[in-house]
Amino acid sequence: MKRFREEHYSFVVVGGGMSGLCAAIAAAREGVKTALIHARPVLGGNASSEIRIHISGADQSLRQPDYAESGLVYELMLENKAVNDSFSYSTWDMVLFRKAKEEPNLTTYFNTAMYDCEVEDDRIVAIKCFQETTELRLRITAPIFADCTGNGTLGYFAGAEFRQGSESKAETGEPHAPEKANNERMGNTILMKAVDTGKPVKFTPPPFAKHLSEHQLRYRVHSKTMKVDASMAPDPEEWLRLSANSCAAVDYGYWWLELMGDGEDIIEDYEKIRDDLYAYAYGIWDHIKNGGEHGADNFELIWVGALPGMRESRRLMGDYILNENDILDHKVFDDAVIHAGWCVDLHAPHGLLDFDILPSDCNHFEGIYTIPYRCYYSKNIKNLFMAGRNISTTKLGLASTRIIACCANGGQAVGVAASLCEKYGCDPRGVIDHITELQQIMLREDGYLPLPYKNEDAKDMALKATVSASSYIAGGEPEKVINGVSRKIGEEHNAWMTDSISEGGETLTLKLDSAKTVSQVRVTSDSNFAYPIRVTMSANRQSQQRIGVAPELLKDFDVVLYKDGKEVGRKEVRGNYLRLAVCDVEPTEADEVKIHVLATNGAPAIKVYEVRIY
User: What is the pLDDT of residues 193-252, one digit of tens each?
Assistant: First the structure.
């Protein structure tokens, strides 16, 4: 007899990549009964141990570190950094698993594929799933759903409007759009990892390996000893940049091992593309090992991905379609929910097989832009959110928004928006009427939006407090912890800063405008975005990181509540490693809150960006 079960949730997220995981956790933390449906055994999608793409974002690989994504995705990376200095992807899998399982309002279904959905009156009523490991069939109902599948699978099954390929310049006016619309897509990639054993290692390729020559690979960095005349490249300046900054050497590769397939639909071609990528991966390694001097004699291949990571397929249409002009104009929307800043990164349309052009045309710009809320819900399916690379953009919009940290932050915004749907009894489109509340929650949860957006949360009692400190330096005045901006931007630090920590510690005092009931204090300290914390296989990217928890972060501090000069409550925080430390206290009437800092994680001075009191 077939096993079957029906379940009901307030919010269902399909797809457990970084966008889906962040959507599910964010909604659960806001009190929403949430289900996360994930077809794979581990969370993280392209960032998981199955695919191993490192998380990049608006900092453009340290070109503009002030704009690195914070929020939930950064919290997950900090959790990993605290336990994983060896860049183990298994440990990273564990961190994501633990964070999902810790949420009491979140149920995660692993190894569970959604294969169909029911739609009535342009609303998704239920999804149908099969959990392969238990042979369980599921019918899951909810008032609100989120498509975080990457491919827009739920939206496609439900009849949501979508696009594929490139729009024409005549339609969009985008500077890098083609003259005529086409169906070219950025392709799929599998990565590989090798290690230096310190002694010669032989390699015998499998019979299915597909081989390429040094001439065919001349624009793709794949060797420690590779020397190329930059003047031969179609874009010499771009070639030199790629050569200097490429993660690909011998030990880790190769993002340019990319194919889009020969058919009209990259999703239908997935298995064929996987087979070809697998064959080219072993052929390229054979070339590196046996096809001339590449500095790889002592290297052994220890891992080749078997699950290609996808860059582009369907884009589900919302009430707004983000385009390249929005990006290059640094557009700040009235309904902005996240910031973004990755370059407009277009890969060669035929990937590895475009031998005569560079593998990527990355159009860099300074600064950031924002993504409007209207890109995160379906234009025609009333109760469908989307987050990840399937949001409402043009092809050139996708070229920037598809980067993982951006996708994850969008997922967090969708999770918060789902909680507002439940709070106000509305569909996703209706949250537009509550957009200020959504923006303020995102800022409260360590998100970032450029000015004029800042903390204006009426519930935050710190905003009306008088702030003082036991010591501070010029430019680091204590009142900056309530200026509404929780990170360094340009020359403005937006933080309370000291030049040292005295033997007895340093104290930040917030005197409230009147006695109020305090139940939570939030302290955001510095983690120094100039140092990445992502898990990665790249030795170059690993060398940019520091061992252990960021030394600038507050480690030990006390939150002490006073009324009429007498202590009425206390919360001791020890061993903190998070940028945003949420300190819950027994609800107590107080007129003053003191944060007594005893130690950082190693830095000789204190830097605190924000304090909130609820």
Answer: 999 999 999 999 999 999 999 999 998 988 765 554 445 444 545 544 444 444 447 889
Domain of residue 325, CATH code = 3.50.50.60
**50 shares its domain with 150:** yes
- Residue 483, Ramachandran bin (φ over 0: left; ψ between -120 and 50: alpha; else beta): alpha
Phi and psi based region of residue 173 (left: phi greater than 0; alpha: psi -120 to 50; beta: remaining): left
What is the pLDDT averaged over residues 15-26? 98
What is the domain extent for residue 213? 188-304
What's the total number of domains in the chain?
A: 3
DSSP annotation of 173 reads -
Residue 367 lies in a domain: yes
Region for residue 391 given its phi and psi (left: phi exceeds 0; alpha: psi -120 to 50; beta: otherwise)? beta
Q: Which residue has the tokens 């998070």?
A: 578
Q: What's the distance, CA 304 to chain centroid?
A: 24
Crossing angle (nearest 10°) for helices 89-101 and 71-81: 120
**Looking at the structure, do residues 68 and 20 belong to the same domain, yes or no?**
yes
Distance CA 285, CA 121 (A): 53
**Contact between 358 and 410 (Cβ < 8 Å):** no
pTM here? Answer: 0.96
- DSSP class of residue 199? S
Reference 541, options 551, 532, 530, 550; nearest CA is 532
Domain check: are 472 and 379 in the same one? no
Residue 142 tokens read as 């909810």
Nearest CA to 527 out of 552, 496, 493, 495 is that of: 552
In the three-class reduction of DSSP (H, G, I as helix; E, B as strand; rest coil), residue 545 is classed as coil
CB 313 within 8 A of CB 264: no
**Lowest mean pLDDT across 227-236, 314-323, 597-606:** 227-236
Per the model's pLDDT, the better-predicted residue between 114 and 219 turns out to be: 114
* Amino acid identity at 185: R
- pLDDT tens, 405-414? 999 999 999 9
Strand duo 554-563 + 566-573: pairing = antiparallel
Name the nearest CA neighbour of 154 among 24, 258, 15, 39: 15
How many CB atoms sit inside 10 A of residue 406's CB? 28
Cα distance between residue 34 and residue 9, in whole Å: 6
Give the rounded distance of the alpha carbon of 262 from its chain centre.
Answer: 30
According to DSSP, the β-strands at 554-563 and 580-600 are antiparallel
- Please check whether residue 177 lies inside any domain of the structure: no
585: left (phi over 0), alpha (psi -120 to 50) or beta: beta
* Concatenated DSSP letters of 278-330: HHHHHHHHHHHHHSS--S-TTEEEEEE-SSPBP--S-EE--SS-B-HHHHHTT
Q: Which residues contact residue 206 at a Cβ distance below 8 angstroms, ignoring those fewer than 6 apart? A: 282
Beta strand segments in 357-402, E:
360-363, 369-372, 384-386
CB 51 within 8 A of CB 45: yes
Distance, CA of 450 to chain centre: 18
* Inter-residue contact 254 to 166 (CB < 8 Å): no
Task: Tell me how far CA of residue 579 lies from CA of 77, 92, 181, 582, 600, in angstroms.
Answer: 11, 19, 45, 10, 12
Same domain, 424 and 503: no
Cα 444 to Cα 454: distance, rounded to the nearest angstrom: 10
Instruction: Tell me if 460 sits within 8 A of 441, measured CB to CB.
Output: no
Distances (CA, A) of 136 to 111, 273, 409: 11, 30, 32
